[in-house]
């Protein structure tokens, strides 16, 4: 038997295991192994948060913790002042850690740059001065539209240093998406690149943006990073408006002391993924946000900044990249990997090559990436030494147990705890997750709220649902919560604080609580299915379908049905690009019936070569719903590949 086959068999064997204790060797050296931390937070929540906030360096210490007089506009640590870039850089350098690597950057073609904390501080000071030279002042918005190059972190921290508010747009988005986000936030400066590399190709960025930039009257300057200069593709520069990053750095002064900011000063705006509708411009604060991300990054990843090499694979264009590739790890003085490329370029084993090369000990990624690796096969990770890994994390979607077990067995080699972290762009930092040295994990459950965070499940009238399925709410404010939606205060109140009042944050996800009190986030409220009066979660049905041997990925939605109210339609991708047959269809229906019940059997299966996903890899069920109900598709601006929907519409029209 090959090693791959025996690992697959091991994954199948573990399918009956309900929960996993923290591995003994991990537990022996973990920081948090005592449940007293939860009690401490419960006894005096505000004192607990104040203590976490005091782990940061404050220029002026705060005396009040929470001001809730204008709920739901909560204010944290409001009379304190601090600077985020100071906390991420200066204080580590001052403590003698200037030589520590902040980022091992790895380019697509294998280029490497080791950037120390001292290097990063130098670049950030210069770029902060360069921004000032371009007229940027405290409170101005600076757009950032860059590939995964170190300059993206430099630009973010330089903004933070002078109190400019950054608005990062994911590099894979279109010129129109950039225009819209810059227009709405009235950005003064945009930092972008001449070109971006993607899977061996060089794509023009700046010249493609140019027509859109014409429509932005507030934008006075564009800074262009040379991220892949190609003489064959000239990058047109407009005199007086556009300046190369290198040139701006060369003329800028070297020293730029960090400017103290009020704790509530906005640190950034970031648009949410757009899985459920029109993206929202989420605003985060300086003091509360930094408190939340540094605390959770230390606790949930059991960080040891002296020994760990930490890699969050998310692009900085997402909240995960902001909180756990930039602010969290830098505030904690961690060493990170920053990887420019795609997971399968130049080959599907590149991630494991990177883990081996830098000795990555903590890996944080998304279920969609894990499922892709499963599809590519166990032979790729098997070619590399993964023994440096000690902790694995996941975020972004519910993780189906099969993917969890594969991650645990093939990547973690049954040695690494998995932290399934539930949170949102809005929450700023991790809300529900295991503490890896303490919590027994159950595949597919994010377990419990972290100390300091209070959650509950309620029915639509707001009554607690002690056990079973309900709507997830956060019942107390927390420091890293969003402060508003940019320019849309009324939408902020309506979206999060109208359903259950200004005291309870309505998450918009449904979840189940089991007899042990574990939370199982099932997915968005909109994705819940109602078959013959029974509420089923799309994630639960999808997990059952994906557990079938032949299936690689699945998404289910409902369509109206005269008899059952709603009927389940499943979009299914088979492993190895195989086409579906009526036999496989019958087999999958039988399989779902055996796992959940007859009720959950899809009434239709549509074979899909691919599923519609956001650029961050989440399945956009609302588009599938539009397609099966033959409606016009809703907002598609954050859809990764529009071709997928065209192909699926053809399949639906031809009866699957
Ligand atoms: P939009 O709000 O624009 O529709 P989005 O909700 O996908 O987009 P994010 O803020 O990136 O944007 O994602 C948060 C959502 O992702 C959560 O509300 C939840 O539905 C899902 N999610 C994140 N992590 C997990 C997890 N560990 N388990 C289950 N679901 C998760
Ligand atoms: Mg959301």
TrEMBL record:
Domain AMP-binding enzyme C-terminal: 540-618
Record keywords: Acetylation, ATP-binding, Ligase, Nucleotide-binding
PANTHER family noted in UniProt: ACETYL-COENZYME A SYNTHETASE, ACETYL-COENZYME A SYNTHETASE 1
Domain AMP-dependent synthetase/ligase span(s) in chain numbering: 92-477
Keyword Protein biosynthesis: no
Entry-linked NCBIfam families: Ac_CoA_lig_AcsA, PRK00174.1
Entry's EC annotation: 6.2.1.1
GO molecular function: acetate-CoA ligase activity; AMP binding; ATP binding
Organism annotation: Lipingzhangella halophila
Acetyl-coenzyme A synthetase N-terminal domain segment(s): 36-88
CDD domains associated with the record: ACS (cd05966)
Gene Ontology annotations for the cellular component aspect, listed alphabetically: cytosol
Biological processes per GO annotation: acetyl-CoA biosynthetic process from acetate
A Pfam cross-reference name: ACAS_N
Keyword Ligase applies: yes
Family recorded in the similarity comment: Belongs to the ATP-dependent AMP-binding enzyme family.
Enzyme class: ligase
Domain of life: Bacteria
Protein name: Acetate--CoA ligase
């Amino acid at each position: 038997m090959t090693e791959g086959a025996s690992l697959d068999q091991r994954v199948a064997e573990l399918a009956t295991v309900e929960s996993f204790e923290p591995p003994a060797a991990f537990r022996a050296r973990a920081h948090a192994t005592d449940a007293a931390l939860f009690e401490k937070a419960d006894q005096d929540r505000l004192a607990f948060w104040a203590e976490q906030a005091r782990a940061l360096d404050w220029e002026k210490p705060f005396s009040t913790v929470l001001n809730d007089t204008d709920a739901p506009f909560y204010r944290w640590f409001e009379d304190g002042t601090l600077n985020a870039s100071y906390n991420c850089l200066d204080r580590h350098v001052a403590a003698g850690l200037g030589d520590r690597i902040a980022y091992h950057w790895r380019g697509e073609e294998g280029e490497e740059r080791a950037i120390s904390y001292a290097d990063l501080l130098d670049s950030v000071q210069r770029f902060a001065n360069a921004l000032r030279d371009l007229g940027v002042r405290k409170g101005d918005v600076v757009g950032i539209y860059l590939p995964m190059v170190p300059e993206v972190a430099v630009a973010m921290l330089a903004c933070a240093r002078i109190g400019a508010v950054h608005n990062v747009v994911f590099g894979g988005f279109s010129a129109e998406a950039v225009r819209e986000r810059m227009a709405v936030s009235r950005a003064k400066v945009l930092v972008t690149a001449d070109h971006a590399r993607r899977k061996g190709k060089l794509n023009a960025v700046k010249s493609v943006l140019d027509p859109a930039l014409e429509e932005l009257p507030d934008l006075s300057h564009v800074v262009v990073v040379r991220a892949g200069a190609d003489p064959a593709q000239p990058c047109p520069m407009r005199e007086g408006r556009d300046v190369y990053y290198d040139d701006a750095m060369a003329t800028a002064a070297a020293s730029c002391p960090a400017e103290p900011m009020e704790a509530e000063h906005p640190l950034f705006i970031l648009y949410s993924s757009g899985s459920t509708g029109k993206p929202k411009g989420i605003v985060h604060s300086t003091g509360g946000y930094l408190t939340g991300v540094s605390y959770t990054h230390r606790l949930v990843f059991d960080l040891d900044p002296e020994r760990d090499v930490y890699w969050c694979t998310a692009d900085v264009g997402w909240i995960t990249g902001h909180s756990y590739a930039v602010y969290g790890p830098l505030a904690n003085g961690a060493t990170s990997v920053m990887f420019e490329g795609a997971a399968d370029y130049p080959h599907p084993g590149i991630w494991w090559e990177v883990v081996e090369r830098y000795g990555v000990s903590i890996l944080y990624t998304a279920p969609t990436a894990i499922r892709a690796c499963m599809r590519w096969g166990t032979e790729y990770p098997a070619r590399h030494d993964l023994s440096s890994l000690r902790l694995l994390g996941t975020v972004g979607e519910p993780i189906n147990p099969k993917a969890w077990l594969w991650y645990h067995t093939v990547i973690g080699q049954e040695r690494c705890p998995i932290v399934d972290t539930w949170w949102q762009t809005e929450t700023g930092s991790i809300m529900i997750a295991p503490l890896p040295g303490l919590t027994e994990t159950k595949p597919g459950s994010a377990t419990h709220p972290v100390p300091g965070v209070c959650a509950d499940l309620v029915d639509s009238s707001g009554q607690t649902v002690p056990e079973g399925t309900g709507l997830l709410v956060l019942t107390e404010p927390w420091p890293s919560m969003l402060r508003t939606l940019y320019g849309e205060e009324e939408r902020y109140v309506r979206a999060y604080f109208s359903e259950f009042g200004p005291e309870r944050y309505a998450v918009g996800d449904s979840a189940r609580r089991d007899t042990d009190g574990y939370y199982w986030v099932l997915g968005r409220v909109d994705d819940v299915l109602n078959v013959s009066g029974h509420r089923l979660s799309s994630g639960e049905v999808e997990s059952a379908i994906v557990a079938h041997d032949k299936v690689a990925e699945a998404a289910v939605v409902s369509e109206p049905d005269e008899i059952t109210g709603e009927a389940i339609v499943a979009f299914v991708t088979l492993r190895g690009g195989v086409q579906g047959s009526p036999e496989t269809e019958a087999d999958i229906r039988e399989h779902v019936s055996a796992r959940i019940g007859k009720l959950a059997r899809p009434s239709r299966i549509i074979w899909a070569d691919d599923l519609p996903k956001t650029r961050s890899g989440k399945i956009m069920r609302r588009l599938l719903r539009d397609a099966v109900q033959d409606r016009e598709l809703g907002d598609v601006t954050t859809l990764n590949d529009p071709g997928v929907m065209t192909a699926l519409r053809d399949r639906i029209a031809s009866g699957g």
